């Protein structure tokens, strides 16, 4: 089963041709697409989108890069939405130290951490997995995951060390690999994709972002590309792509069991 575990299908980049993008994805064998929210402004958008497109499911959360424009009241709103709308996961949540370095943006980091912890508590309360944004912040994320244990989830766009990977796996997480893995110079990511147990990996696009090598760094990524991304992973591991599809699909369903009911062969549009 081919599942794109991370796609921002509600992004404005898809406004002109979203129907075509979805049809193309399913025509290329995609069985399911997980659409994570990033802040309260798109909670309704991702819910409505996934109700319109079959085999699309949503996660709800406040992304660390959006906490500065969010209110603490948004956490209460998230609790209400999770109760009423039953997402497959809490996400996209986490910490980002790339644009907001702790030494230069301490107040933002403090706010990110508060939002992250409170959203982990929401995941605990509803027995939901989490979709993690972990850019340049994996050690601090691991620290919070040990304090606030959740039922696992996905470390999206993983680009850490083998030791960090093993610690996340021990906490019940799968690691997301996508377009970055397709670049020959991405030696660390490709080594991880080759050496980690296939049972620890899920596939993703992060569309419209992180385009694969064949689209170029300025290209628009789309969920249809996840099939070729799967082929790259199969080539790196020197296995048949069918094995990659079977195992990574099963991994996604293990993390988000609701996918098992929704990801069945259907038409892309109602």
Automatic annotation (TrEMBL):
Q: Which family does it belong to?
A: Belongs to the metallo-dependent hydrolases superfamily. TatD-type hydrolase family.
Q: What organism does this protein naturally occur in?
A: Methylotenera oryzisoli
Q: Where does a divalent metal cation 2 bind?
A: 133, 156
Is Nuclease one of the keywords UniProt gives this record? no
Tell me which domain of life the UniProt entry assigns to the organism this sequence originates from: Bacteria
Name used for this protein in its record: DNAase
Which key words are in the record?
Hydrolase, Metal-binding
An example of a GO molecular function for this protein is: metal ion binding
Q: Where is the signal peptide?
A: none
Residues binding a divalent metal cation 1 are 6, 8, 92, 206
**Gene3D superfamilies under this entry?**
Metal-dependent hydrolases
